[in-house]
Amino acid sequence: MNFDRLRHFEAVARRGSFVHAAQDLHITQPALTRSVQVLEREIGGPLFDRRRRKVALTGFGRFVLERVQVLVSSHNQLSQEIEQFRGVESGYLHVGFGPLAAETLASRSIGRFQSEHWRISLRVSVMAGNEMVDAVTSGRIEVVIGEPEPQRAQPELLQVELRRRPGFFYCRSGHPLLKKPSLTLEDLREYPFVGFKLPAAFAHMAEAGKFGDVEPATGMLVPKVECYSVPATKQIVAVSNGLGAATLSMLRREIRDGELVPIALVIPGFETGYSIITSRNRALTPAAEVFVDIVRTIDEETEELLPRSLGTKSRYLASIPLPKRDRVSAQ
Question: How far does Cα 81 stand from its chain's mean position?
Fold first, then answer.
């Protein structure tokens, strides 16, 4: 059975017109009519009711169309995938970043990729952890750099962990906390937390009702102001008594300019934990493979330390010995 004839039949049924279908297919109407007639003889039944003025499918035609549409769709998808695999120097790539990964890795990774492979059209999405699984498994996004929420993890995902970077809480210059001669983590829960969800080990911070709330389904701490944009979070903290969490590279300029100040508490295990996330069931295109290699190189080149102000004055809090599974979900 000739695939072109099946494609011709699908076009006529979809457009409801031999004239318009012929225009779409760039063939003459008589040639299209003959193609459909040959197909009808091959499969042994009429596909269209020719007694009507308008193009109308017969019952047999509707039955055949349902199956032909699947074939045409698969053929189109295969053609696109073959086109993508022909080389790295052309095509389209859709990648995603979690908010913190976007701040530490996105700009340099994207900049290097575009300078080396400028013919590829690149689309970049920034997303929360609860969006990552569906984005990758559905094929909507080929590569995501981030950390899906623990309860959303699925075996369909392949995760390659990147370097962990120590994090810390911060506040605006002149914040009431900075007037205290010494600080404990409990002092922080008197102020609203702005940012992403924290592991269940931080749930006790919600007891005062100001820092955040506990998510019943997971036990995770939901910030009082849940925000997955790092620039927006910094702006909110800068003009309020809210507290944020970040790594040094995200705040280097604001710390230097005195706009934002690290809170002198170092918490073991309070660090980023994002990975390169792809699908186990779908091979990466050459462009995606190159992008992943660039991300890993940038990750290795990026050294991340705590601010000096958190050095000898820092207090390691034995009251929160975070196990590996409870490290901060830096999405």
Answer: 21
